[in-house]
């Protein structure tokens, strides 16, 4: 099976029909037959496939200049044109058979042998004591067809979970956050994330046809080393799209009467096992599809999803560059590049697709898959600086209100509160909680009981989810107000009211549910007063850039 020539990628057409196509067929069909999105059996497979297609186009069809990029955006290449472009690298994409195999070490013979379910991220593993049957129930995936084997392999190599002792994470670390511009068709989505030659190659001057610097698996001599270490300097820029942190060899066999346990389809060849060893990637690496934190020495490290999901609280860090609290963040290069092409799209609203695994690093344990699509509001360049400033204020205040909500509910339900003789409130923290000194949500760290941890995470997620739609509506209003010179204050006032209302609703819901029989009504009342004092404070209004009301504290 060849991953360029053969149909293996599940897609959905505009009329709802789902089928498998080859990569060169992604521009096939018009009207109701147009391909609009991927349709893999797992969300992480969709993310991996999108990166596969972007990498394939970026590797073989680099636009020479903005004009060529614009031409293909408005008039996509025909399938036969794409097929012609892909021919030069087709031999690197064989999934099975003799010779080099896609993202595999075809000569591997001394690696550890695993059941095929272990190739799927989130599989429970052999240690039943870890209780990791969360994403996949143990023993349910025994056979994989070749398309699902390819998707599993791709997701494993791209997301790069460390896999425990002796297995290293991938180029971007274990479970990187990926951000992709999404349009109304599969082709446009791919092309909006493809960089022009100057931005893609940068100062790279070596022979761009040296395929061993792009596809690791073609460098069979290098893979024979006992300890394989790969350095960023050894690669062509396109090599970053084709990581191989694990030497893997899929073991295929003729299929008699089994169907694939993931997609339910039958294939003439199946796989039940694979061999694996480790490869160590040594950076620094900067992937075009990931936002990065920038160290004090300028070293980039890819961002990773955090507990609570991917929502608007991360908006600034993944859409615009940010320097806050001695932390520098940069959006993915493809996102920054897209925002620089705003005149190509006018006021058309695109989406930002952000996804990735939350992986507990030391245990290599998969905690959650996060997947979110958010509106990407386009703003004229001349208003960009003011626009970013207002967004920063809005998110900062939301962060503060969320922190106040968590803190006061902790006081209400878990902390012992005493009233001094001077009627001031003193609250004591139980031994299993850390002392709180800052009300900013990002600074609130706790080591609490399972009950408290679960509750607080639910509160945090609810607050951000319930206010997300209003945030993006406010961004649209903000853009429109800036472009016509209208007053911004009413928009900020409405945002403040929305945050206050949600905080009050959640506090009342949680504190009055009756789930906490030992809760002290007096303690709840005092915490409620503290919450209102904080969310209506002079300090909070100033933080949002609002005029201070008479009598505000």
Indicate the overall shape: globular
Residue-averaged pLDDT, rounded? Answer: 83
- The counted number of beta strands is 17
> Number of domains in the coordinates?
2
Distance, first to last CA: 70 Å
How many strands, which pairing sense, and closed or not: the largest β-sheet? 5 strands, mixed
Q: What structural class do helix, strand and pairing data support?
A: alpha+beta
Low-confidence stretches: 126-135, 423-427, 429-450
* Count of individual helical segments: 14
What does the model show?
It is a single chain. By secondary structure, this protein is of the alpha+beta class. The protein folds into two domains: 9-300, no CATH class; 382-553, Topoisomerase I, Chain A, domain 4, CATH 1.10.132. It contains 14 helices and 17 strands. The strands form five sheets. Strands 4, 5, 7, 8 and 9 form a five-stranded mixed beta sheet that branches. The termini are far apart. Mean pLDDT is 83; it is low at 126-135, 423-427 and 429-450.
């Amino acid at each position: 099976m060849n991953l360029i020539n053969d149909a293996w990628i599940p897609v959905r057409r505009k009329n709802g029909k789902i089928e498998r196509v080859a990569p060169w067929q992604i521009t096939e069909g018009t009207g109701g037959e147009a391909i609009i999105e991927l349709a893999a059996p797992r969300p992480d497979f969709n993310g991996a496939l999108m990166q596969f297609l972007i990498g394939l186009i970026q590797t073989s069809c680099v636009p020479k200049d903005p004009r060529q990029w614009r031409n293909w955006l408005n008039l996509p290449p025909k399938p036969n044109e794409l097929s012609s472009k892909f021919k030069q690298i087709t031999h690197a994409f064989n999934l099975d058979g003799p010779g080099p195999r896609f993202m595999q070490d075809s000569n591997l013979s001394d690696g550890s042998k695993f059941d095929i379910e272990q190739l799927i991220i989130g599989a429970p593993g052999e240690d039943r004591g870890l209780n990791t049957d969360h994403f996949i129930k143990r023993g349910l995936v025994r056979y994989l067809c070749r398309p699902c084997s390819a998707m599993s392999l791709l997701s494993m190599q791209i997301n790069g979970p460390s896999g425990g002792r002796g297995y290293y994470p991938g180029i971007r670390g274990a479970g990187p956050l990926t951000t992709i511009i999404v349009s109304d068709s599969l082709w446009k989505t791919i092309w909006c994330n493809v960089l022009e030659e100057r931005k893609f190659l940068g100062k790279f001057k070596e022979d761009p046809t040296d395929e061993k610097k792009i596809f690791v698996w073609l460098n069979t001599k290098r893979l024979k080393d006992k300890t394989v270490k790969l350095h960023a300097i050894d690669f062509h820029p396109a090599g970053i799209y084709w990581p191989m942190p694990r030497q893997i060899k899929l073991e295929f066999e003729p299929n008699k009467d089994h169907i694939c346990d993931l997609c339910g389809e039958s294939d003439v060849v199946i796989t039940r096992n694979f061999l694996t060893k480790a490869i160590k990637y040594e950076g620094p690496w900067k992937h075009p599809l990931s936002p990065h934190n920038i160290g004090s020495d300028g070293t980039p490290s890819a961002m990773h999803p955090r507990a609570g999901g991917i929502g608007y609280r991360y908006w600034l860090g993944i859409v615009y560059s940010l320097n806050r609290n001695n932390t520098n963040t940069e959006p993915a290069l493809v996102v920054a590049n897209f925002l620089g092409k705003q005149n190509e799209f006018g006021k058309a609203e695109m989406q930002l697709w952000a996804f990735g695994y939350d992986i507990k690093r030391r245990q290599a344990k998969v905690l959650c898959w996060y997947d979110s699509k958010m509106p990407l509001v386009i703003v004229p360049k001349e208003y960009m600086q003011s626009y970013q400033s207002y967004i920063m204020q809005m998110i900062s205040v939301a962060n503060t209100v969320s922190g106040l909500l968590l803190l006061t509910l902790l006081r209400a339900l878990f902390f012992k509160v005493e009233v001094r003789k001077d009627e001031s409130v003193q609250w004591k923290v139980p031994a299993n909680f850390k002392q709180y000194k800052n009300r900013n949500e990002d600074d609130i760290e706790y080591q609490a009981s399972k009950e408290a941890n679960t509750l607080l995470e639910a509160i945090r997620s609810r607050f951000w989810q319930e206010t997300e739609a209003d945030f993006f509506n406010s961004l649209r209003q903000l853009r429109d107000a800036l472009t016509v010179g209208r007053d911004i204050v009413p928009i900020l006032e409405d945002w403040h009211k929305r945050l206050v209302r949600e905080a009050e609703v959640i506090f009342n819901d949680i504190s009055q549910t009756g789930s906490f029989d030992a809760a002290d009504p007096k303690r709840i009342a005092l915490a409620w007063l503290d919450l209102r004092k904080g969310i209506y404070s002079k300090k909070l209004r100033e933080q949002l850039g609002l005029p201070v009301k008479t009598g505000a504290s």
